[in-house]
Amino acid sequence: MQPTATQLTPDNLRVHVIHYTRLKERRMHMEQALRDHGLDRFPVAWVTVHDREDVLANGAYDRGDWGDPQSIAAGSISLILKHLAVYREVAAEPDAWHLILEDDVLIRPGFVSALEACLTELPARWDLFYVGLGCSLHVPWWLRRTGRRTYWRGWKPGLLWGGGGCSRCTEAYLIHPNCAERVLASHFAKPPFDRPIDWLLNAAGAALQIHSYWAEPPLVTQGAFESWMKDPHLNPAAKNHA
């Protein structure tokens, strides 16, 4: 099921924040951002399971249990596992909208009302709804329509726009409970992994024919912080597990 009400309330919207526990400044940033944009009135779940240290524990990463260390970073695997953990929560609560935010996003003013306006345009059959800017990917100008906020992207790679498939990075998006279940039941949710979460969803999109939609203009941007992976003070093992 999926709620049909597009007026967002604490009863029908869940906010999931993907967070790496060690980066306490990001927690502070996101707590303030949620307050500033009125998202703190909704139930907020901080996703802190599957931190990078858990991926590295007991030599599992070096053995290749999670994926080829030469092909995918431990931090990327951590991020995949955190998103999949959210999908399990989404599947367990199918009557709510579920907004997923990564912990370095910048939320644009008027977010809640803009999101409500977008939800009125989503059709009954949707799987993923990307509301973030994601690598500066936009719906091309020739497809945009006055007064319209939501656009079908689909799953097909190789279009003239949209990168490698259905995703627009994963800093801010909603996922339908049925889609969460389909991804979890597929091999895309099982290690070994060979690509980051956004490209994993592109591959899943093509295989599962995921109906993805993009918000234009985007409601969220990314990059509140320089990546911790580049900072040896935050990530002492960067040279070995970048």
From TrEMBL:
Q: Does the keyword Transferase apply?
A: yes
Stretches assigned to the Glycosyl transferase family domain: 15-124
**Record GO terms (molecular function):** transferase activity
Q: Which UniProt keywords apply?
A: Transferase
State what protein this is by name.
GR25 family glycosyltransferase involved in LPS biosynthesis
Species:
Prosthecobacter vanneervenii
